[in-house]
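ok posting inputs for the magnesium ion job
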Amino acid sequence: MSEATKSRNFIEQIIDKDLAEGAYDSVCTRFPPEPNGYLHIGHAKSILLNYGLAKEYGGKFNLRFDDTNPTKEKNEFVESIKEDVAWLGADFEGRLFFASDYFDKMYEAALRLIDKGKAYVSSLNADEIREYRGTLTEPGKNDPDRDRPIEENRRLFTEMKEGKYPDGAYTLRAKIDMASPNINMRDPILYRIAHMTHHNTGDKWCIYPMYDFAHPLEDAFEGVTHSICTLEFEDHRPLYNWVVQEVDLFEHPPKQIEFAKLYLTNVVTGKRYIKKLVEENIVDGWDDPRLVSIAALRRRGFTPESIRMFVELAGISKANSSADYAMLEYCLREDLKPKAKRLMAVLDPIRLVIDNYPEDQIEELDAPNNMENPELGSRKLTFSKELYIEREDFMEEPPKKYYRLFPGNEVRLMNAYFVKCTGFEKDENGKITTVHATYDPETRSGSGFEGRKVKGTIHWVNAKDCVRAEVCLYNNLTDEEKGVYNEEDGSLNLNPNSLEILKNCALEKALGEAKTGESFQFVRQGFFAVDSKAEKEGRLVFNRIVSLKSSFKLPVS
Ligand code: ATP
Ligand code: MG
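and the output
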């Protein structure tokens, strides 16, 4: 579809109109995370939306840390967020900002409001302010300090900044309307006293601006034109507009636009829950591959392209909705199908001995890396008398329609020969240890052999040169039947089988060289990626990103 025929989402329509009417002559968007945790798939939507719009309109995209609340913020989160945003492909080169760098300018803006008679210093404590605020059905009451003279407000506010007063002694409030039907407009607090060390400004400040005052100013200082946020801020929009207008420093003040958050069905996204899972060691850190933080998705092997496709399919809307995890898996498969090499890995190996194959012979076979994409070239496989095959590819007494190996049956070994099962061995517990077969030298793959057909093709590796590795299979962290949350106490319904570790997998030699960031299709199994954390510990572990099977169907739009 060309850009022109594609239907415009409601945000694009607003921007188109603003540009046509000359409200702005270019576009600037931003992603404004608070550095108080790791980003998740929902944030990816916001990042890609904002970045995508900036690119579409030839405008600018800012990454701005909304670090005005020193209580919860940490540098560790600043670093992880930068990494995640860059990994998603949202380029913020030269446009990285910190809200805390504007503290001086915000303070000046507050003084302007005081001088205009639009802000005053209040001596009410938190409880009293709540009491005076009124309710949804009753108007609030005026603060006894509402008419404090401008000069006195100025003096008190300056003294608040200088550290003369303890936490909670005073606040600075906007003078708007205590009877407004919108509670956010009932003289909201603009500044509070907090004697705290800030991760960026240290002990320079002991007063900090409130979100509703700081955020519009941050946008305006940066020349942001369209400040895109999620729906819960809709009721804050009048205050956003009030701040940028009353401070009266901006020729083209930014405009707030709200859209619906992205939720995933049956998936834990709440920061609070994830934090608990991490702290109780139920998961292996914030990047545990079962989580949907960006770091976790990356570690599991999801690609930025798959996340971009997912976010686009989920669409932009004003109504809250929930997308299926299966859709994310679909996107990954679509992305990797043509891109990933398709190699052979035996997850639960048993020995296959080719009795009529010469004892010490090792043969090289040519195998395409991806049948659907010749650009990925081919590789050499080695073949010998002793191989490994998947335990489930052999059955002593097969059911109907089982076309794999069983006594007397012939199958194709992928990229190699036809082999016919001649027998098997068991250990003292009755477990199959070895399968015996004979091969037909005429049937070598690529030789043009047309003598007969077989119904089953199975994968294998050469016992002589395969590499051993661990493979992790992931399932939903929470119980699909019971739902994510326990209705009685709000706790999580955990799935005890969310992680399955296969310790002794046998992989074809080429996989021994695999590095973090590489993903593969293991034929007949799924898509897998190297686990970065294990790699750092010197171990080779593959994460299953998704299996090959899916019942997912693209929603028709
Ligand atoms: P907090 O509860 O700490 O505020 P948060 O998830 O809102 O958590 P922020 O750092 O404030 O974290 O979010 C940064 C940006 O990401 C905001 O603009 C927010 O609206 C957006 N965002 C957060 N969650 C989602 C989501 N699920 N879908 C889309 N955008 C989101
Ligand atoms: Mg938030």
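notes: Residues 34 surround magnesium ion (ligand 2) (CB under 6 Å). Residues 192 and 554 are 50 Å apart (CA to CA).
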